[in-house]
């Protein structure tokens, strides 16, 4: 679980953006001072909860005096119509935090819910669904947490986490062998190496050279993935990637790959509809 220390700056920046230099003009105009209300954060669709801690932080930053009761925890399945959170206190404060809270929670619930659908397609196999770096700028940390809430796993967080050699790196370095030699010479004992291949002859070259911990099998059809698994014989971790749409996941998982990376988890997840009702 990510600590509030990391989450608060994201939420604070969103609140500053929304409130602007003058605060909430509507509440100032129409909400009587001292008016108190109770609001409920309700799910208008089924899915998996995520981002609810972000929503709590939003309300708390606006007004530490608000009473917030979480009825669901991030990572739990939620039903349509279920109340996820109750907030009571200043009506103006609740309304000022509403949009930022809903934006974060709806976005993260959407990612967690889509991830859970992908994970369900891998049942009975060893394959794990993992995300990519195709995240919203500035929100990678919480979007990757939402993937975990949905039952998925995380790929590297950024360029500094691991050595991931892709096709352009191979081209620039002069081929599979030279790029692996350079990577092995440069890495620390704590850093893993992954290399992308899109043909079986490239995979054979990687296996013959050694040095790679993970091989990314990019845009391969199912028979080629099966052949790749047979070639590797467990010598390296295998990750299938490229156009991994939901209807194909069960078939890919059945090939015996270890991971299936899906950019859509974060770049194309629909927001789960949530509402705040007084």
Give, in order, the helices and strands.
HHEEHEEEHEHEHHEHEHEHEHE
Instruction: List low-confidence stretches.
Output: none
Share in helix: 40-55%
Structural class per helix/strand content? alpha/beta
CATH architecture of the largest domain: Alpha-Beta Barrel
3D architecture notes:
With 278 residues, the chain is an alpha/beta fold. The chain has 2 domains: 4-115 and 270-277, Aldehyde Oxidoreductase, domain 3; 120-267, TIM Barrel (Alpha-Beta Barrel). It contains 11 helices and 12 strands. The chain has helices at residues 4-19, 25-30, 52-62, 91-120, 140-149, 167-173, 176-186, 200-209, 222-232, 249-253, 264-267, and strands spanning 36-43, 47-48, 67-70, 77-78, 83-90, 128-130, 163-165, 193-197, 214-218, 237-241, 259-261, 274-277. The protein has a 6-stranded parallel beta sheet with strand order 6-11-10-9-8-7. β9, α9 (222-232) and β10 (237-241) form a beta-alpha-beta unit. The longest helix has 30 residues, at 91-120. The model has no long low-confidence stretch (mean pLDDT 97).
Keywords:
alpha/beta, Aldehyde Oxidoreductase, domain 3, six-stranded parallel sheet, 11 helices, 12 strands, elongated
Present the secondary structure layout.
Blueprint: H1 4-19, H2 25-30, E1 36-43, E2 47-48, H3 52-62, E3 67-70, E4 77-78, E5 83-90, H4 91-120, E6 128-130, H5 140-149, E7 163-165, H6 167-173, H7 176-186, E8 193-197, H8 200-209, E9 214-218, H9 222-232, E10 237-241, H10 249-253, E11 259-261, H11 264-267, E12 274-277
Parallel strand pairs: 6-11, 7-8, 8-9, 9-10, 10-11
Antiparallel strand pairs: 1-5, 1-12, 2-4, 3-5
Helix pairs in contact: 1-3, 1-4, 3-4, 4-5, 6-7, 8-9
